[in-house]
């Protein structure tokens, strides 16, 4: 990993971002006339990334086994899948993240994880490791029958609720899932989806897509946290409330006829030329942008920098972009600009857009 970091830092990336005057000029560019010709290739890429039903069946099988094992030691405990496997934005062959919820919030997590690891190992699960000194303590394991790897943490309830919120947004309009899969696929190919290298997480990209669709005119997605809440739970003094009866919102974005290819073009156009990196915070919670000043995210504190700001929907003091530093913000912006240029001018953008980045 350190050698990768070194290569990343020694690379010439991020040296060619546009000046403000050219960015403003670029905003006047109208979308290419043949944009809808690209719908079929983009939808084909999206379809290729969706996990097959057999994979979901295997995940359910593993979950059933784990639930029966957990019940022996903690009869009242619950297991919840969270993250990309459960929020509708997971690619094929993703690992599973599981949260073990024990009612006693003061439980000694290290003791529970060590006991859990022992139970899993004695029941033929493989590669079992209890990482009790990690920032988020977990047990790692691999199921030899299904070949699935998974991480189990304890009482990370906010992550479970975040997963539910994203899953509910995905049910409102199919274009969200299409856009998020394409953006995540692009980020992976271009090497800008690694938090340890100072770029953004998959979760951050999904929030960027939700916020982008909330701000289309007319809006494709509503702001669920801005509506009368039908779901509410308080976790560690954080109130998590939003309108979750999303079946009533089907057709919400019908007034906006933008196709997936047009939305991909507009997404990269926004992040290349329109977003105000100096002042703006992306906020799914409000369905728009907030000012960095209002959030007090104008200066570096410790390792937290606020060069691209994405507010967590519930844990609102958490900036998902805080790990992006001066070198990687330039890389990100250069990649957004490259993507916008390809989407506007390339005859076959689907090939060049997803070209894997190779360090020079």
- Write down how many β-strands occur, each being a DSSP E stretch of 2 or more residues: 10
Helix content: 40-55%
Number of helices: 12
Q: Biggest β-sheet, characterized?
A: 5 strands, mixed
Oligomer: single chain
Strand arrangement within the widest β-sheet reads 1-2-5-4-3
* String of helices and strands: HHHHEEHEEEHHHEEHEEHEHH
**First-residue to last-residue Cα separation:** 18 Å
Low-confidence stretches: 1-9
CATH class of the largest domain: Mainly Alpha
Rg over CA atoms, rounded to whole Å, is 21 Å
State mean pLDDT (0 to 100 scale).
Answer: 93
Domain Poly(A) RNA polymerase mitochondrial-like central palm: 43-170
Keywords: Cytoplasm, Magnesium, Metal-binding, Transferase
Protein name: RNA uridylyltransferase
GO biological process, one term: RNA 3'-end processing
Distinctive features:
360 residues; Beta Polymerase, domain 2; EC 2.7.7.52; alpha+beta; five-stranded mixed sheet; three-stranded mixed sheet; single chain; Poly(a)-polymerase, middle domain; PAP_assoc; 10 strands; globular
